[in-house]
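Minutes, methods subgroup
Present: GH (chair), OT, SY

1. OT presented the first of two proteins processed in the latest run. Sequence and structure tokens recorded below as shown on screen.
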Amino acid sequence: MTLALVRSRALDGLAAPEVTVEVHLANGLPCFTLVGLADTEVKEARERVRAALSNCGLDFPHNKRITVNLAPADLPKESGRFDLPIAVGILAAMGVIEARRLEGLEFAGELSLGGELRRVRGALAMALAVRQSPAPGRRSLVLPLCSAQEAALVDGVNLLGARHLQDVVAALRPGATDALPQVCAAPIDAGDPRHLGHHHGDLRDVKGQGAAKRALEVAAAGAHSLLMVGPPGTGKSMLAQRLASILPPLGTDEALESAAVLSLAGHFQPDRWRHRVVRAPHHSASSVALVGGGSPPRPGEISLSHRGILFLDELPEFPRAALEALREPLETGHITISRAARRHDFPARFQLVSAMNPCPCGHLGNPLKACRCTPDQVSRYQGKLSGPLLDRIDVQVEVPAVSPDVLAQAPDGETSAVVAERVLQARARQMARQGRLNGDLYGTGLDQHAQATPAALEFLKKACARLGWSGRGFHRVLRLARTLADLSASDQVEMAHVAEAIQYRRALQASPVHPVAPALS
């Protein structure tokens, strides 16, 4: 009887717990048994490993009883990442590979039937887990070459890349002198921060809509959520697509967080390093698609857009349950998916940008085309968005219809580079003052850093009482006013900042079915 131990890692949310692959060869009725709470994808490794070894000219113990245990037994295992460690374990148990060479290594990789190594999901998460392990026991991580290049973005981890199973075997045979190549991160030029979002278009492309552009700048400066309301064809989608062009590039830590989540879903692209993700799911998306779920749980759109932008067009057309599921992550910046046996936490600090028509036909308040909806239809349509959800959207702005004559005569607006510079300076003021953006200010931090003049504070209190806003609405307007003050390089929140912030909370209230409140004196 022969036993071999190979180290690997599973995925558990963003964590990558260690897995020991135990391979036991014994005499008896020939069979290949795989145990240890393995998913169907893992159990299919038996056939992939058998074919890969045969096609590589390596012996397979057809006349042995093969038992493979993936420990710990209570940790779910999924995907084809265990193909390579299982193959290495079988070869080590047969004596083809020198067992002592495996002590300082961890393996992960999917095998083709010909022995080629294929990309695995979560390479960044595995590299982060190896880096967080105690230094004396830290091992090198052997991955398919394409996955190793992705994982090399994590500093402090020794990564070895291989293209084929034969490369791994050649480096681990007794007396072998060749070694697997060490993989280092390819140099990535982050470029000029003002031009990282150029592929999303330029803000100058949007003609007119000065108020909406101002709201977009405010949302970008303080990382505030944004809702645009207006008839079809007024530029709501164009504005949303150009938000990324005025945002600064991600810092190294933020980029690593974003890349780790994208790696779990197999969506990470190294050439997009430090670029903010823009996700735009269709309005037919379910709540599971938005917030994550499944078995085993996978990150949803809100996690895939972590440190980036989530654009929800036609907001009232999304299922009510899906929209209500956004309320908690909008406040906390993370989502917890609970199942009977396990809990999975995923980051979800995204910037929500949404757009909607004011009514089912889309032309309520449009001076160029009459609305054909009844007041009851308009109320039902706008009522698809609950009060608590709207309360959590900081900036709500109307994007009105503009006549062709006005559009033709509209002058060119500012470029994205000019606006991005102002956003960068406003964000720098916030980070220097409080260590976080205004959109993340809560509790005592808000009281300390969003101080308003007595007149401005009294005006805000009066507005909240007249408009019936909740305490959450009061604090969100105060955060918004703090961002407006930062854009104007003011140390204190003034009356003008509060007045402008109030206007950004009343887009739906100004429609015919929600009459405008009396003027504030």
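2. SY then presented the second protein from the same run.
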Amino acid sequence: MLGKAISRFRLFAGLRGFLNNPISYDEARAMLARRLEERGENFLYMLQQCVYGNPSSPYLPLLKEAQCTHEDVAADVRLHGVEGALNRLKEAGVWVSFEEYKGRKPIVRGRASVEASGEAFNNPGGAAGYSGRSGGSTGRPVATSVRLDHHVKRAAYESVMFRMLDLYDVPFALWYPQLPADTGFGNSLRDARAGRAPDRWFDLLSDRQDKPGWEGRLMTWALVRASRLSSNPLAAPEPAGLGDVDRVLDWVLEQLASHGRCGLQSYVSQGVRLSHAARQRGAGLRGATFIIGSEPLTAAKAHEIEQSGARFHPRYSSSDLGHVGLGCCDPAEVGDLHLAEDMIAMIQDDQGQGGHEGRVYYFTSLMESTPKVAINLELGDCGRAEERRCACLLDEIGFHRHLLDVRSISCVTCEGMTVPVAALVRIVEEVLCPKYGGSALHYQWVEQEDERSYTRLRLRVDPRIGQVDGGRIVADVLNEFHRLSQSSRIVAGVWRGAGTVEVIRESPRPTTAGKTLPFMHEKAR
């Protein structure tokens, strides 16, 4: 608690200076180019500060088992580059799976065995920052300390993005929840640092039933108030839940009518919802730019947005690591992203996973300011990667590695809310089976796009269980998320408002290999 208090004091003390010193595009571009040149040195410095210099690091026993010193890694980086060194580390057993990272199984490599919780991977540094939390849907919520100096580094991406999309000097808004979700406040900070503080912040979670607790709302209010002492104040969140799509759409249409252009940053599904709402009104969104992320941008979702006349710009971020993928403005396909390889290194296994043609991504943080310390860390995502030149400003700066067809194999993401599959399985086993009967084999979760390109989470309930109330099952699932933690209330609130969870009465379906799995990704029928 003392460490948390000190971190928050430093945050408030440093906020004014952070906001009063926005970076220019030229500064941002030079910063990114320099980090690309120095990524090897930055990785070794992060390793010394956050791992070898941290006696409680869960990576130390793995490195000791691999008989790998800091000098050994430095030699490998010089000879084989960062990725070459990381491949050699992974072969020696220095890597962490998604299940191990979430603390659901011990990390066992040879004689080394580490019982690590998610918080064990937190950056040990004591810089100014604030805490975000995982939903705790599979156990105790995990705190992540988000450092102000990390936002300083990430703001360079925002500056380049605003230049690429020509969004300086046009109305700009966010549509995200407030703290403890980091998306709203974190993006507000970085956009302001990039010289484009949002004009409005629409709070995606305004349903009183599922609002997070007072601590997150109080922290948001206090930080916004404190920002008014600077020359670059932050917008205060205002209610605009999924039942208030028209309120956000009204703002977009007003800006298009008066300025001809505007920008809005939110989740992929919210871009689709606004596009649908505009078409239902008979209105076009030409001139609007949606910066969207937090869930896969499928071809169907992209088509829905394009039909409204709006354009979109995808991103791939992680609350644990920061920016991972930066949208390409000369894409080879929908969802084409540049790897943020100045701050992230990535290697892949040789084989696909989970029936997906893509291979699992293993990420390593290169900067000592990262919220979580990652060395060959599996975050549960997979996809393709390729080296390719394009006619994009990011390519010009030096970002040549592209991520394509990014998907999750360990989580489900709907309406920007990400939940581990293990959490859904636990709800079936511990909540639904005791109440409605049957075993886990009588239930099957399905992630599926509907005819309007919304991602739905459908639960197959075997008819052999007997008559059940599908609406009551949905309520029980959402109430369980609501009960678990302040952060998981955000999941419950957004999914409740969007009607994300549905029950269908049919038997669980086997895969083509004949296995009946508790969770499946399926295309809409």
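Chair's summary of item 2: The first helix runs from residue 2 to 20.
Next meeting: continue with the remaining queue.
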